[in-house]
Each structure stands twice: as C-alpha cells, then as structure tokens.
Design brief:
It contains no helices and eleven strands. By secondary structure, it is mainly β.
Length: about 200
C-alpha cells in the first residue's frame, strides 16, 4: 500500500488477495484493489474507511463476478463521558448452512455510550444487516435474502476497581425470504466481569 498524508488525514491504496476453500462447494480466488482514507475532521470527529471492487473467480462452471466492497467507521467523542460511533461494511462470506452458497453481507450500525457518576455507563446500539445468498456452483438451488435488524441497550456499573456488572436488553428480528428462517427474539441478560 502507498499513501499521501495531509493536514488532517491520510489516503492511500491497498490490495487484498485470497483463496476460499468452500469444502463441498465451489472454491474461489478473489482480489480487492482498495482506496483507503483516515481523516480527523476535528479533535472530536474522526473517520476511517476503505472502498473498492472485489473480483472473484470460481473453480466451477459459473461466470466470474465482481462487486463493490467497503468498510467505514466514524467516531464522535462529544465529551470525556460521551462517545458516538457509526460503522458500515460489505463483505463476502461462505455460508455455513449451504455448501453451494456465498453470503454477500452488508452491515450498518450505530451506537452511543454515556458515562454517569464516573462508574456507571449507559449504551444503546442498533443496526441492520442485509444478507444476499449467491450460488458458487451451478447445482445450487437456494434463492434466499435476509433482512436482519437488532437493537441493544445496556447499563454497566464498575462495582470494584476490577469488577463490573451489566444488565442488558436486546431485540433481534430476521425477515427472510424463506419463512422458516424468520424470527423475532427478545433477550434480557445479566453479566459479571472480574479481573484478577
């Protein structure tokens, strides 16, 4: 990779090459030429990201494919006790459920974390995931698309210098083009963490 540094940011080029062994599916090679950027808009706002095209070749009798891929992250440190984050990315994964399928996954999420009284933290996070299933060899017959959304709220307290407790609520919903895979979940949890 090479780059150019400016007053508040740096930009450059990067590349990724890889090989995916899909077990009983179609093996694949891929290349990703990428443009990348790190930028600090102010002392409190910063962004990092990369974007480019993915070229994928299959060791099966289907045509090669290409698609736009990216990864973006933003942070806003509103104060010493408040932080907001946003992120998004698109990537290709091998499906664990279907040997003949890849998943093109696009994720958007955001969150805020607020500190109270030095030892108490409240956080809220949420996001949306789009999963498109694509066959990696001609024998595949699955036609599936999932829209998954989630939201989570948590309260964390430092009870000692090395221990904390967290109470959280999480909502999950999956709207799938195959009805058997659709679901709605509500999860309440209590967790503890201690360092020795």
């Amino acid at each position: 990779a090479q780059g150019h540094e400016g007053t508040r940011g740096r930009c450059g080029l990067a590349g990724v090459v890889g090989y995916l062994n899909a077990d009983s599916g179609g093996n694949q090679t891929y290349q990703q030429p990428l443009f990348q950027l790190k930028y600090r808009a102010t002392e409190k706002i910063s962004f990092t990201g990369q974007a480019g095209e993915e070229f994928r070749q299959f060791e099966s009798n289907i045509p090669n494919r290409s698609q736009f891929v990216f990864a973006l992250n933003g942070v806003y440190d509103a104060s010493d006790s408040t932080a907001l984050t946003v992120s998004s990315r698109r990537e290709t994964q091998s499906s664990a459920q279907y040997a003949d399928e890849n998943i093109i996954q696009t994720i958007y999420q955001a969150g805020v974390r607020q500190r109270f009284l030095q030892r108490l933290y409240v956080s809220v996070n949420g996001g949306f995931v789009s999963n498109d299933y694509e066959h990696n060899r001609a024998t595949a017959t699955v036609l599936r698309h999932d829209d998954y959304s989630f939201g989570r709220a948590a309260v964390t307290g430092d009870i000692t210098a090395r221990g904390s407790l967290e109470l959280s609520y999480e909502y999950r919903n999956n709207d799938s083009s195959i009805s058997n895979f659709g679901f709605t979940e509500n999860l309440v949890s209590l967790g503890a963490s201690f360092l020795f």
